[in-house]
Design goal:
- This protein is of the alpha+beta class.
- It has 2 domains: 58 residues; 132 residues, no CATH class.
- Helix content is 44%, strand content 31%.
- It has an 8-stranded mixed β-sheet with strand order 1-2-3-4-5-6-7-8, covered by helices on one side.
- A hairpin with a 2-residue loop joins strand 2 and strand 3.
- The two termini are 26 Å apart.
Length: 199
């Protein structure tokens, strides 16, 4: 059974922290250990859950799109922030829905951007092996995260810049065992130019 970083974070936040505080409270205040742990767990876990709910509530309330459009190629798109349209669309080459980020104005995507996306979709299968190999080399050299098994990367997003004249675009991936890090592959003239990682 593989334990992910999400699982470890949950265990640390909901169990380890209350236990540590409970032990310290029992030692310094002279209360019973079990009582100190129970009270601390209720207070700390309750505060963490409340903070998470408030954060998600505010994020959901504040992230209203500036505008929406029904685009002929990208479907329903939203202008979440000035200059960037966002779509969530089924991408046949990976048989999954992914995010599409399109740089542009309030008028929506251009004809060149639509054409580039169609070409990306048509040519993605031929690029997939190059992407996997480039990502594996990057992860091994930068983070030394590779195990005996080949790493599995999932395509999560495609970004299309304002100018599509040079067939320049990028793709974001998540490593199956590391959902926190975004691995970006930049492409120009259908050749990989750079691989980098960020949160």
């Amino acid at each position: 059974m593989k334990i992910s970083r999400d699982d470890l974070t949950l265990v640390y936040g909901l169990i380890v922290i209350p236990l540590a505080i409970g032990f310290a409270l029992a030692k310094t205040a002279g209360v019973r250990l079990w009582l100190a742990i129970v009270v601390t767990a209720i207070v700390v876990d309750g505060a963490l859950i409340l903070a998470y709910w408030l954060f998600m509530h505010n994020v959901g309330r504040n992230r209203q799109p500036v505008a929406t459009l029904d685009d002929e190629e990208f479907g329903r798109i939203a202008l979440d922030q000035p200059g960037t349209w966002t779509a969530y669309q089924y991408f046949a080459p990976v048989d999954e829905s992914i995010l599409i980020f399109i740089d542009g104005s309030a008028g929506g995507p251009t004809t060149a951007q639509r054409a580039l996306f169609r070409t990306i979709r048509d040519r993605y299968a031929s690029l997939a092996t190059d992407f996997s190999q480039a990502l594996a080399r990057f992860v091994q050299s930068e983070f030394d995260k590779l195990s005996d098994r080949p790493p599995r990367f999932e395509l999560t997003a495609i970004s299309i810049p304002g100018s599509a004249a040079e067939s320049e675009w990028s793709a974001d991936f998540a490593l199956e065992s590391d959902k926190f890090t975004v691995y970006t592959v930049e492409v120009k003239y259908w050749q990989i130019t750079e691989v980098w990682a960020g949160d």
